[in-house]
Amino acid sequence: MDEKMFCFQCEQAANGCACVGNAGVCGKSAETADAQDALTGALIGFAELLVELGQPIQPPQALLLLEGLFTTITNVNFDPETVRQLTEKVWEAKNAAFATACPAPAPVGDYDMKQLWQEPDEDIRSLKSTVLFGLRGMAAYTYHARVLGYTDGEIDTFFCTALSTLAHEQDKEKLFQLVQETGLMAYRVMELLDKANTTTFGDPEPVEVPLTIQKGPFIVISGHDLYDMKCLLEQTAGKGISIYTHSEMLPAHGYPELKQKYPHLKGNFGTAWQNQQREFEDIPAPILFTTNCIMPLRPSYADRVFTTSVVSYPGIVHIGESRDFSPVIAKALELGGYEKDTLVPGMNGGSTVATGFARDAVLHHAGEIVEAVKAGKIRHFFLVGGCDGTRPSRRYYTEFAKLTPPDTVLLTLACGKFRLNDLPLGTVPGTGLPRILDVGQCNDAYSAIQIALALADAFGCSVNELPLSIILCWFEQKAVCVLLALLALGIRGIRLGPTLPAFLSPGVAAALQQKYDLKPITTPEADLAACLGSHAAD
Ligand code: FSO
Ligand code: SF4
């Protein structure tokens, strides 16, 4: 293989295969891809050393592993220089760990990622890649919990052991087992983040969020990090600046400690990440990216973009650990916002969207929901969610939602929700229950699982026996982490689209299909009929 780069970690991988030229479809340069490979190789070498030392991983070491893995997620970091700086930090930490070890262990070099990308056995390459990409997604969620003060030593240790296993394990059975262990740990990570978010900011409550931007200075905040959100709200309070969420930040409106405490959190700007280049065109306000998905910047708004945490883009002001957002605030005041109230409509032309239907809010109505099912008012539940993306075939998810009959409920989450969250589907007839329930961000798949488990408990059946169909859209590595968690919990029959991951070899895809009945989406009509048909007797 003499390509300049090799990357096949996301749904956009060129030709459904891999990005191999001078740049990826996402805009990542070969130089950045190379730096990210070097960083990952250094992280694996570091993890191997830590495992060899056999001592509990220290918090700064764990944080470094998380930052390193998070940095390599799709649409997080486009700056090779910051990636190289992080690699140097990993080397320094590794040298420090080595120097203090007594007796001195055998030296461990960096892992060469070409060994993985050029692994001759496609199933081994596939299984190892699946674990690595799942770990990257998990790292992001663990990082968000950590900045809120929530950690778990077992999770930190798992990052070490799993990464070091990638360097040497060649047994397919053991690697398949590692995929499942990664899924179970992903579930634990999402549980930790749920605890961090809900303990810090309260249980989300249903709220109707306007898509109209009020006149005057405002800031748009994108990404998943609620700690960044809190810091920004604190620093802008009383300054005459409104705050609008973007993409995966929308569910922040549901958290009482954010929404109720900071009335200048006014609404949501725009839709899912892939529309940002169009929606941010000439925007009279700054945009703060706290995580992915940032896209290559267009000149019309590049001067008003800011990054924080592990997000980085060449030439763009980065707000470091201080989380001092003064430059963002100054930019908002300088640009001044719209001169009159301006609607940025949803993908179906809507002017408001609802969110905040996380586990606590939904389960508050559990009795009502169970009664409605028993009385035949609710026939079926669908979990239609995951990440959005550019592929036109993603229209499937809007079409699917539109086709669902009125006596069904759609749970949704993550940025894929923007395909359907402004559809006027109203409430389930004979009940006050909205037909679309936005559970939250992609990590709130944990919350959706809790809802499913509680319903299964109420009906005295397993989740797989519920009148529930799961239709997921995936894009990047957090979605891989969520999917692995669902599979590890034994959830069968998930439909996945718009395409299956390029890193799943035919052998591994077949194994997943056989064990979990994982299947690709087909057409909205056929899939809907199959979902409803499979529970026709309910
Ligand atoms: Fe979307 Fe991007 Fe949440 Fe992802 S904004 S695609 S899975 O980063 O994280 O759903
Ligand atoms: Fe290609 Fe996705 Fe990798 Fe970007 S992250 S280089 S689009 S596979």
Automatic annotation (TrEMBL):
Cofactor(s) demanded: [4Fe-4S] cluster; hybrid [4Fe-2O-2S] cluster
Spans through the membrane: none
GO molecular function, one term: hydroxylamine reductase activity
SUPFAM superfamilies in alphabetical order: Prismane protein-like
Keyword line: 4Fe-4S, Cytoplasm, Iron, Iron-sulfur, Metal-binding, Oxidoreductase
Catalytic activities: A + NH4(+) + H2O = hydroxylamine + AH2 + H(+)
Cysteine persulfide carried by residues: C387
Summary of the function given for this chain in its UniProt record: Catalyzes the reduction of hydroxylamine to form NH(3) and H(2)O.
Stated name of the protein: Hydroxylamine reductase
Name of the gene encoding the protein in the UniProt record: hcp
